[in-house]
């Protein structure tokens, strides 16, 4: 995991949840952690990391993830054993 991934991970675990984390940075973090990402229908993205699976929606038309989605990403990472 590089420095940019670490910065994204720190932003995800901040409380209260931020509303300025770019989705592309989150996807890059997932890949950096070894996750498998596949495209679903529409804006859906399937992510599998350490036998934990989740489906997220890419934000559109904005490029940043809202607070609720960021909390879901945080919960997914915690379930996969990823913490700060």
Give an overview in words.
It is a single chain. The chain is α+β, with helices and mostly antiparallel strands and 84 residues long. The chain has one domain (3-79): Hypothetical protein (Metal Transport, Frataxin, Chain A, 2-Layer Sandwich), CATH 3.30.920.30. The chain is 39% helix and 24% strand. It has three helices and five strands, in the order H-E-H-E-E-E-E-H. It has helices at residues 3-12, 23-32, 67-79, and strands at residues 21-22, 36-39, 44-49, 52-57, 64-65. The strands form two sheets. Strands 2-3-4 form a three-stranded antiparallel sheet, with helices on one face. Strands 1-5 form a two-stranded antiparallel sheet. Helix 1 crosses helix 2. The two termini are 12 Å apart. The mean pLDDT is 95.
Number of strands: 5
Global morphology: globular
| Rg (CA only) | 12 Å
Q: In the CATH scheme, what's the topology name? A: Metal Transport, Frataxin, Chain A
What is the topology, as strand order, of the major beta sheet?
2-3-4
Helical residues, percent? 25-40%
Number of domain modules: 1
User: Would you identify the CATH H-level superfamily?
Assistant: Hypothetical protein
Judged by helices, strands and strand pairing, the structural class is alpha+beta
Name of the CATH architecture: 2-Layer Sandwich
| Count of individual helical segments | 3
Average pLDDT taken over every residue: 95
Uncertain ranges: none
């Amino acid at each position: 995991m590089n420095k940019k991934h670490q910065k994204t991970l720190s932003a995800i675990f901040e409380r209260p949840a931020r509303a300025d984390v770019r989705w592309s940075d989150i996807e890059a973090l997932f890949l950096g952690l070894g996750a498998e990402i596949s495209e679903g229908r529409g804006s859906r993205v399937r992510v599998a990391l350490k036998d934990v699976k989740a489906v997220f929606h890419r934000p559109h038309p904005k490029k940043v993830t809202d607070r609720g989605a960021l909390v879901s990403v945080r919960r997914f990472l915690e379930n996969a054993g990823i913490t700060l």
